[in-house]
């Protein structure tokens, strides 16, 4: 797929996580990069131009590759949406185990929640 | 290559690794939903640090490390990290206070 804008990248990453739910892994690599080839960098160095760096984010599931870059100005917005995306899709990780007790309490809470909320409104 | 077992050690060493060579250090995470496993890796092609987990609480810690690396890589290795970690605490505290008073 190649280089995308941050928002399309996040959409693609979402579907990549979904495609690999039952089988497969997702890799995300983050790296500081100038997005220029070595010869370009050398040219700029000899010309005395400052080399600008951005943060390059690449993702793959072994079949498809997508990438995007974020700069100093927009990385905070991106990292917030990235964090919510990860939270939504990393659901297979184990919660702290308090097996039987929790299940019972959860069931009671669901039943109790409806009845406790209603009196508040009245 | 051995997995680093302590999270704090992993964070400390990986940030150190990045600061020593910002241009060639990369931060990689691998997530496998069907096995519920998460592996984080930081390497500069000479040294490699890895952290493996299957715990949801470590995903929260990872979020903080993500923020650290996004800041370090987008803004540069000299960025003030206390700013990144400090902001989160600032945001979390007022929210808690608000909830407590309302009820």
UniProtKB/TrEMBL annotation, chain A:
GO terms for biological process: SRP-dependent cotranslational protein targeting to membrane. GO terms for cellular component: signal recognition particle, endoplasmic reticulum targeting. It comes from the Eukaryota. Residues 103-112 have a biased composition (Basic and acidic residues). Residues 93-102 have a biased composition (Basic residues). Residues 93-122 are annotated as: Disordered. Keywords: Cytoplasm, Ribonucleoprotein, RNA-binding, Signal recognition particle. Pfam families: SRP14 (PF02290). It is found in: Cytoplasm. GO terms for molecular function: 7S RNA binding; endoplasmic reticulum signal peptide binding. Coiled coil: none annotated. Its main location: cytoplasm. Belongs to the SRP14 family. Heterodimer with SRP9; binds RNA as heterodimer. Component of a signal recognition particle (SRP) complex that consists of a 7SL RNA molecule of 300 nucleotides and six protein subunits: SRP72, SRP68, SRP54, SRP19, SRP14 and SRP9. Component of the signal recognition particle (SRP) complex, a ribonucleoprotein complex that mediates the cotranslational targeting of secretory and membrane proteins to the endoplasmic reticulum (ER). SRP9 together with SRP14 and the Alu portion of the SRP RNA, constitutes the elongation arrest domain of SRP. The complex of SRP9 and SRP14 is required for SRP RNA binding. This is Signal recognition particle 14 kDa protein. It comes from Citrus clementina (Clementine).
From TrEMBL, chain B:
GO terms for cellular component: cytosol; signal recognition particle, endoplasmic reticulum targeting. The keyword Zinc does not apply. Keywords: Cytoplasm, Ribonucleoprotein, RNA-binding, Signal recognition particle. One of its GO terms (molecular function) is 7S RNA binding. It is found in: Cytoplasm. Residues 83-103 are annotated as: Disordered. Its main location: cytoplasm. Residues 4-66 form the SRP9 domain. Coiled coil: none annotated. One of its GO terms (biological process) is SRP-dependent cotranslational protein targeting to membrane. Component of the signal recognition particle (SRP) complex, a ribonucleoprotein complex that mediates the cotranslational targeting of secretory and membrane proteins to the endoplasmic reticulum (ER). SRP9 together with SRP14 and the Alu portion of the SRP RNA, constitutes the elongation arrest domain of SRP. The complex of SRP9 and SRP14 is required for SRP RNA binding. Belongs to the SRP9 family. This is Signal recognition particle 9 kDa protein. It comes from Citrus unshiu. The lineage of its organism: Eukaryota, Viridiplantae, Streptophyta, Embryophyta, Tracheophyta.
């Amino acid at each position: 797929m190649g280089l995308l804008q941050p928002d399309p990248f996040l959409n693609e990453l979402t579907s990549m996580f979904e495609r690999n739910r039952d089988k497969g892994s997702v890799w995300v690599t983050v790296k500081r990069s100038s997005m220029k080839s070595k010869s370009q960098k050398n040219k700029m160095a000899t010309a005395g131009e400052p080399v600008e760096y951005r943060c390059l984010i690449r993702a793959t599931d072994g079949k498809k590759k997508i990438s995007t870059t974020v700069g100093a100005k927009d990385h905070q917005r991106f990292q917030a949406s990235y964090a919510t995306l990860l939270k939504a899709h990393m659901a297979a990780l184990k919660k702290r185990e308090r097996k039987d007790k929790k299940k019972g309490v959860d069931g009671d809470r669901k039943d109790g929640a409806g009845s406790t909320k209603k009196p508040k409104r009245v | 290559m051995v997995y680093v077992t302590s999270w704090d050690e992993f964070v400390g060493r990986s940030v150190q690794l990045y600061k020593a060579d910002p241009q060639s250090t990369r931060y990689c995470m691998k997530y496998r939903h069907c096995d519920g496993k998460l592996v984080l890796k930081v390497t500069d092609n000479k040294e490699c640090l890895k952290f493996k987990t299957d715990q949801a609480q470590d995903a929260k810690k990872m979020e903080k490390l993500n923020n650290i690396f996004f800041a370090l890589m987008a803004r540069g290795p000299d960025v003030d990290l206390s700013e990144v970690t400090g902001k989160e605490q600032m945001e979390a505290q007022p929210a808690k206070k608000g909830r407590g008073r309302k009820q």
